[in-house]
Amino acid sequence: MEDLEDLRSELLAAAEAAADLEALERVRVSALGKKGRVTGLMKGLGAMDPDARRAAGQALNRVKDEVAAAIEARSRTLADAGLEARLLEEGVDVTLPVRPEQDGRVHPISQTIDEAIAILGEMGFSVAEGPDIEDDWHNFTALNIPPEHPARQEHDTFYLPGEGEDGRMVLRTHTSPVQIRTMQAAEPPVRIIVPGRTYRCDYDATHSPMFHQIEGLLVDESTHMGHLRGCLIEFCRAFFGVDDLPVRFRPSYFPFTEPSAEVDIGCTRDGGDFRIGHGDDWLEILGAGMVNPKVLENCGIDSTRYQGFAFGMGIERLAMLKYGIPDLRTFFESDLRWLRHYGFAPLHIPSMVGGLNG
Ligand code: DAH
What we know:
Elements: H1 2-17, H2 21-32, H3 37-44, H4 50-90, H5 108-122, E1 126-127, E2 133-135, H6 136-139, H7 151-154, E3 159-164, E4 167-171, H8 177-185, E5 190-199, E6 210-220, H9 225-240, E7 247-254, E8 257-270, E9 273-276, E10 281-291, H10 293-298, E11 307-314, H11 315-323, H12 336-342
Parallel strand pairs: 1-5
Antiparallel strand pairs: 2-4, 3-4, 5-6, 6-11, 7-8, 8-9, 8-10, 10-11
This protein binds 3,4-dihydroxyphenylalanine.
3,4-dihydroxyphenylalanine binds next to β10 and β11.
């Protein structure tokens, strides 16, 4: 058994000394592989008499287990060291300046959402989100758009197969269902804005089947139409960067607000020249109104105690107007040249103190 003791020390030392995983594998094969030294000794057991075989077998098994464990331990150490070395080698110094050829651009949709959040966030709204796949009840019914309502046709809805507890599932046609989800989940006061994706089956220079909206909802005990006017006039002037931008509220109809209004901003269309600001023309940019008491009641909110306002606008439309982007479809073509032209510097984050777009 002296031999075995020598073999044991030799193999353990070899495992410990293996400089990398390949060398370690060679040690394993030479010891425990089919033609390995330990395996060879195991094969020799058959020729021994039973008593000697039992004693030698036990001793051999112990050595085999010990060597296997040593190889396993060394393998873990080597793997850890390898990872450590790779992390060191691939480490990124985040304090280095950006390489000009790798300088990415912020997409105008992200930029416009960030600008709207900067303005409305400063007013006290916080961002809420909801699912893109909605049920019929949240997208329509709870918003006072009953099953046969003509507004449903105008929405060009993408319906999904199957039906849930709250009716068939749809790709949400507007961000308004998040009003419902928010009011169901929390007691007033509610002050939220909801930027997000919306879907309608429509495709031309001013429509895309997937587009973005930002919704606003404020519910408390004393909010009135004057607050809505103030909020939206302030928003439009800050967003377009025109301090005395004319803003007009035109009576309109939405099932979920009563009264409802569409909001126009002043603009000039002089020949081919289009400018936002003064002039004798108007351009519609958003829908708004006082939350219909039926909508509050659908969410379990006492409409004799609470009231509020809501608004909704299309992000692409805002971006096209502000940044002079003529075709809405180009937003989603992923053309790098377009993004380099219309994109924004990544390190300039819009804010009311730092400026909206640098
Ligand atoms: N959901 C409307 C749409 O997609 C936009 C809208 C209008 C939202 C008036 C509102 C609102 O919250 O009060 O056309």
